Amino acid sequence: MRLNLFNTTAFRMSVGYTLLVTLAVAVTLGSAYFLTESLITDEVDLIIDTELNSLEEKFARSGVPGVTDEINLRIDSWGRIGAVYMLADANFERVAGNVTDWPFEGMPAERWPEFEIGTIEPGRRAVHPVRAAVRRLPDGELLLVGTDISQGRRFADKFRFATLWGIGLSTLAAALAGFWFSYRLSRRVGAVASTCQSILAGDPGRRLPVTGSRDEFDSLAVSVNRVLDRLEEQAGTLRATFDSAAHDLRAPLHRLRTRMDALLLRSPPLEPPVYESVDSALREVDHLQRTLATLLQIALAESGTPLAAPTAVDLADLAAELAELFEPLAQGQGLTLTCAAAAAAVVQGNRQLLAQLITNLIENGLKYVPRGGRIEITVTAGGGRVRLEVTDDGPGIGAADRARAGQPFVKFAGSAADGSGLGLSLVAAIVRLHRGRLELQDNGPGLRVVVDLPA
Amino acid sequence: MHVLLIEDDAEAARLLVKGLRESGYTVEHAADGRAGLAQAASGPFDIIITDRMLPHLDGLSVIEAMRARGIATPVLVLSALGAVDDRIKGLKAGGDDYLTKPFAFAELLARIEALLRRHPAAPHATRLKVEDLEFDLLTRRVTRAGRELDLTTRELKLLEYLMRRAGQVVTRTMLLEGVWDLHFDPQSNLIDVHISRLRQAIDRGTDQALIHTVRGSGYVLRSEP
Questions:
Q1: Cβ contact (<8 Å) for B193 and A262?
Q2: Nearest chain B residue to A285, by CA
Q3: Which backbone phi and psi does A285 adopt, to 5 degrees?
Q4: Measured between CB atoms, does B85 come within 8 Å of chain A?
Q5: Superfamily classification of domain A311-454
Q6: How many structural domains is chain B composed of?
Q7: ipTM
Q8: What global pTM score does this model have?
């Protein structure tokens, strides 16, 4: 049996684990990203704050000219890289600094406003993002200190890029590993299932493969094989018991019959009355032998021994042939026997047993349906099943009796006296042997026997 | 005709030997598988009848050993094992026919006859002819005294079986097996009904009946009763 990979526990677990891995990687890398980013920003903010404080101090000591000098000094000499300064008057006009125009619309509302400045670098114009802070000096001038944060931005971008790829790749890796894992698992479980299936289908010698890796599957296979060995052994013992029972019962019957045969064939012939009674005794022997054969057949079928060497049997063909075989007899009894069979309704089974099944159902009908009645056989196939129905408009079987109709030696009110009471139990046994279902239904009036077999 | 009977059941063997001798056969008897195999190898027999379960060497092994030695004598297997697969095993081992105990003596005789005449003169014949009854196997047309008969597919098959064994008694069981491929006995007298239909179709309107009932055995197709 092939397992559908996407419908296995292993696959579902793999999907779950993949999601979990993705989530874990995303949380880890994501928090690292956000932490790093805020660390960089905090550092920039701290530097800006410190510089503002020192420039305010300068103002307190030496006013606007002091601050202007200080700013010019910091711009020109070895101030820190990417530093941006501006001192503007109350009308936002530049007094000093390395920014030409006030970058905001009036006083910025945020504490850490950001803006962009254009710079001229050798050969090209560039735009740099700047993070800044603005303070109003006691005289009404505005002091802006900022830092070019393009470096930090680039770093953050790279970090984010790496983070997203990290999440993507680990998800992919987890998914691939999960897929491989569930594929391997479902293949091994599938091997177990298909072996068991073929054993059920009549190959009792098959065993599960043991890889020798001593893993959990090997230990499962070894245990299952042990169970199978035991079952095969039991089936063998059972079969031997049946064989010797059959032999021990048939051998004396055979001697009895041969002796009676010899009597009948004797010359000079027996006196007519003696001949008659030996002849009718012979018929009783035959009846006994048939009952015995049926009983042994039922016992064998019920013993759980799998069907030996099943072959493809077209139930539609078989039903049509048997209907044709019985039709003249039915006609002689004033009954209509018809068969409506699908084009092909193939089951794996034993042709003789299936023929016996249909024969028993037809003979049941012939026995119970009164003159003028009809017996209909239909065979349909579909959805992996084959359905055989034998319906009649005879007296039927009461609801209470239908339930126990498959049991041996069950006879019903109004049933014919000459039946052995084994017909339906043999049918039930053959159905079970073919792993099918048997159902007796009310045909209102009459009986509907439904045999449902796996195709 | 020389018959070898391999049967360990002394009483059954005695009765069979007696019956076969009375029917005109020369019979030798072996009581176990090993002796049976030795006898089968030592002398030419026309047919070998062996029980399935035998001491020392079971019936199927006897057949296999015989076949391995190139002895092609037809073998009829008698068995007290009647399950459906037993028959298949018996035929697979090299048996030519299989009869489940208990059986009617007439059945045994008919089977022996059938095995002895197993190689019909012309197995690839395209026409069968018994008296004025003719069967063209290619066109599946049957005529009686030149008049074409209207027969169903199954009636044709039944008639072919009888005509191929013309002059030879065939039992109801043989017909069920040979024509319908059924290896069990339905309880009803099915075959009789089919034969009487066929007989109607063949013999109606003629003064010479070709299909005859053999009391206690079965049927035979031949010109004289």
A1: no
A2: B102
A3: -60, -40
A4: yes
A5: Histidine kinase-like ATPase, C-terminal domain (3.30.565.10)
A6: 2
A7: 0.88
A8: 0.68
